[in-house]
Amino acid sequence: MTELLLARVQMAMLFAFHIVFAVAGMGMPLLMVLAEAVHLRTGQAVFLELAKRWARGTAILFAVGAVSGTVLSFELGLLWPGFMAFSGAIIGLPFALEGFAFFAEAIFLGIYLYGWGRVPPAAHLFSGIAVALGGALSGILVVAANAWMNSPAGFRTTGGIPYAIEPLAAMANPAWPTEAVHMTLAAYAASGFAVAGIHAYMLLRDRGNLFHRHACSIALAVGGAAAVLLPVSGDFNARFIARDQPAKLAAIEGQFRTERGAPLRIGGIPDREKETTRYAIEIPKGLSLLAFHDPGAEVKGLSEYPPANRPDPLPVHIAFQIMVAAGLSLAAFSLFAAWRVLKGRENLFRPRVLRAVVIISPLGILAVEAGWTVTEMGRQPWVIRGVMRTAEAVTPVGGLLFPFALFSAIYFALGISTVWALRREIAQSPSFPGAGEKE
Fold this sequence. Notes:
Blueprint: H1 3-42, H2 45-79, H3 81-114, H4 121-150, E1 156-158, E2 161-163, H5 167-171, H6 176-205, H7 210-244, H8 246-253, E3 259-260, E4 264-266, E5 269-271, E6 276-278, E7 281-283, H9 286-292, E8 298-299, H10 313-343, H11 351-360, H12 363-377, E9 382-384, E10 388-389, H13 390-393, H14 401-427
Antiparallel strand pairs: 1-2, 3-8, 4-7, 5-6, 9-10
């Protein structure tokens, strides 16, 4: 296994692990703040207990995310020194600001956890809001750096050396707005449905427990609202990619030939040798319509680019199909759940609906993982699109097999510990008896 492949696999493993905690760091604080806000408005003890429980869950996930994120930041320098040397002065600003947001989030989380009964209720709620804003801002700032890799801006080069650097222009690169909105909504959808699935599972065992009923309702409201908005933000993102990153769009859709009125492909397996996407269901002119809002628009195919500059359409296309299927499933279920609630809130807690919530709850995380696979692999073979190849950024030092095995073991241990701690919290959930409708 080459050093480049080892570095890429190691980075992919680290990122796939950390992104779960990054998503939780954005979504969980919002849930706990909403629970406390409802408690302050209604005075019901169940919402106070819910806010405290979600705060403890947030703290566990925050702590593990801090560890995995620190390792990830070190790995950027160790595995990709060429990238860091070139881009540090250009895109260092959002990383620095993310550090401030992270520390602010940590400080206010400490106040939130230990301030119950020690600070005024309004100040305590404000600290929770600060945690939620810090988590969201951290994610948005990190996305700025990734968006810059996809759509570099704010510098010029001579002899491969950057000059005329404008950090603000680099941070506010063209890809940032659509990526930031899409990622933030994805984080809220993934967090909301994951939490709703846990409480739905507990409700199947104790349908009258108001603690899990209210928890499931709040989590579904957050996750469902975000899931319904995700296809809208996805449309803006796709249209930007069509204009700014046509090679990535071609890989996403398995589009090998340039054509007008290009079809939208559902499913299928891209065949790089024969330059066709086999077994796909094709919707005539669908891709041109969605990407450019013009059924006759021209879509560039992968054949327009030299083979050495093409992203691999096989993993990119499959990951995109998984992301879209998962996202649309969440959006459809959210609309269904809203319709059920309009007919009567008790309909949300029918066993069949709760089972559906449990089954569908992992799809948000799956969509996030698949979406980042599309983002990263769709940019290859570039680490900075059109500027620096991934092979130019990797460390020249060998012996990456041992650190890969070591970090894999560490992350596995972190994952097991996190599951154990969260399971312990869930097992100790309180009972608030309520009048649940019986079948």
